[in-house]
Amino acid sequence: MSNTLTWKNWIKSHETTIPESNYYEPSNEPDIRHILEIAIASGLKVKMVGSGHSHSKVAQPVSNNILISPVKLSGELPNYSWLKPDSQLNLQSSSHALVRVKSGTQLRTINREILAPKGLGLINMGPFDGQTIGGVINTNTHGTGLYLPGFTDMVRSVEMLVVKTTSNSERLVETWVIEPTHGISDPQKFSDESNGKCLIQDNNLFYSVTCGYGLFGIVHSYTLEVRDSYWLDERFEATTWQAIKNKFNDTVDEQINNDEPPRFLHENHQVKIYVNTAECLREGGIKDDTHCRIDYWNEVPVESRPSNWENHHNNRKKVWPPARKNPGNHFGLWLQGLLFNISKPKPAAATVNILNDNFFVSDNGEHFVRGYKASAYYRAIRRLPDECIEYDSSLSDSEKDVDNTEFTSDPEANNVGTSIEFSVPIRRTIEAVEKALNFLSDLNPDVNFITPIGIRFTKESMHYLCPTYQRDSAFIEIVGFLPNNRANKWDDFKDDYHDAFDKLIDYLRGEFPGGGVRFHKGKYNTYNDTTLATDYPFYNTWVTNYHILNATGLFDCPNAARWNLDASKPATLTPIEAGIQMDNFKSLCSKEGKGLEIVETTFSLIPNSGDHLKIELPVWMRSSDLEIEIDLASAPDSTYLQFSSELTDPVRFLETDNFYITNHYQKDQYLLTATKTRGNQGSIKKINIPSTRLYPISFRLSVGELPFVTTQNPYHENYSAKILVKRLGEPAYEITIHLRFYIAPFVGNLNSTPCPELHMFGCEWEMLMSNQHRVPYFSIQDAHNDGYDNGHYCLGGSTC
């Protein structure tokens, strides 16, 4: 019987046992390839796990299968030789640069050994630096800062080993370099220098796999966008909940990211808010005078080390940049407060008082050794001091500056516990905090949530399964934990904490429906396929890519099972009613089909309103041409259809009928526009698209004119548009969109004199209009803006 080993996550709440023979520590790309080939031959699943710094099952491997540790996948790699010139890299700032690192590199190594010697730094980071870069990217770990991204959005290129299934069911290991559509790599240089790798520059794929939770393949390296090195000063401000609310009401006067952000978030580099949870639970909810604290970090000039810096007996005072002070009695009193009556229904008064007197206080900002109020960003953001070790007397002065002379050990939880973290749009921060704390107070759980709630702020993301997808967000974290001296009681308390979390999650979903609240998937959560589809508009696109890259389930894990991501199941198509609805944009995403995939749906469009239906088909092709047939014969006149694709070779029109077609080649994207003319059949019988690489296609359908309707027949459902997509001559998709139209309450008459007139729908003058002279309006103001005057007999008040 072979020996076994047990994997446990950071807080030891999830564990998995595997044979020692199934444990691997690769150090390079060929090693990873060899392990995947072993997995294919043996039929085992594969999971690579970093530091396990998650409270959920997101990192948990499958029992008795293969576990990969990235402990030797650490360090910097040369940037690719096939990158575009610097002027074409589209980096966020001229002070930014690119650095390529192996996926198992810990953040502290990146900060101190790789970036600091080059005068560079991470754009942002969280309060801990023991995680691997692959772990923080896959779970979208974030820091705080209204205009600062999470780790996922610092990635510019992913080098991933995937398992491709051929037409004869053979499984091959390939290395894919995956980037956004206009990525950092030069395709021509890549083809000359790639040494067997495959370059995929595609938004849909990149925004799926980067925040992929380890379910798409094994990442060898990431290319990150970094910036010049910087220092941050740190300041604590004691305040009250009422003062916090006042700050959120004081907004800047300009639109930024379609919103007017609070001034204190706009004017500071980074901000974090703490609320005294213990006080809220003891007092029956959050009150205006509840104790709070705001932590501010702002950039200051980088300082040079003083010449006499090392002339001190205390090692913490020798290291440079200045180390964070030992917390000393201040921190000890805070922890002591958390020990009081942790299992009682309400926090003890002593606990609340100790927190208020020792944690929720302002200070002079001297948080670093020898009176420094600032230090390098990786010391200022890190929540705890570094554990300094003795200097090696054999080191030279220059070697003593290297930060590995003070490394801490691998991450270990100071206390046993769990937490949830949820995001809401920034404008709903106050509402979300109040609802969550008041709910917990009313719930009166069997355990206490004594640790202060933390609130951080993060820039929107374009990655499909990031909690910040398409919105600047506030993250609110609620922690339940036991101090070390009660860690042996964790099993007695864990279920109570999780029961309270389950009830809170259900409550918040009801208060913020339709994805208004999203939960961090690296913390405790209850996500399944239904709730993911509700919270994330492009979840189905993400799932489609999952089925393509993980067709055999090789990279599945307990978290995938919880999300119902059985690789043998087809991706679920979200009904159109649950699609994206932002302004006048609506979207229907289909899936990769095997054979004919028929999608029929009814959709409402308001003519002349700007409403349109967008259909996205991830038709991933590399070996054959694609044929598309479009039939708008049953659509109303002036139906407008735009086909778009990110192609690099010309499109051939084999047969067309009654369309005005323009072929635009601009920025690697073809836009093929067609408008059905009055009285004609209206169809593109066949377009032939050459395959050059993996790419999606999309169609945009809108209607220009209002069909003739009456008050007795206010809707028309007998109009439709059809799209047929073929690969290798075989149908892959047939999509029928049934169109429904609304009556416009006002109709403009283009043929009226001396000025165009507006009439109410159904009035005698409106009924005399010819179809070609009708212009529908859904508001009088819009018509007035277009120069129409009120009709005298139905609206009155004519001035013409």
Automatic annotation (TrEMBL):
One Pfam family this sequence matches: ALO
Tree of life domain: Bacteria
Keywords associated with the record: FAD, Flavoprotein, Oxidoreductase
Keyword Oxidoreductase attached: yes
UniProt GO MF annotations: D-arabinono-1,4-lactone oxidase activity; FAD binding
InterPro entries reported in the protein's UniProt record: ALO_C, FAD-bd_PCMH, FAD-bd_PCMH-like_sf, FAD-bd_PCMH_sub1, FAD-bd_PCMH_sub2, FAD_lactone_oxidase-like, Oxid_FAD_bind_N
Keyword Flavoprotein tagged: yes
PROSITE patterns: FAD_PCMH (PS51387)
Domain FAD-binding PCMH-type residues, every copy: 16-229
Protein name: FAD binding domain protein
Protein species of origin: Microscilla marina ATCC 23134
Lineage, highest ranks first: Bacteria, Pseudomonadati, Bacteroidota, Cytophagia, Cytophagales
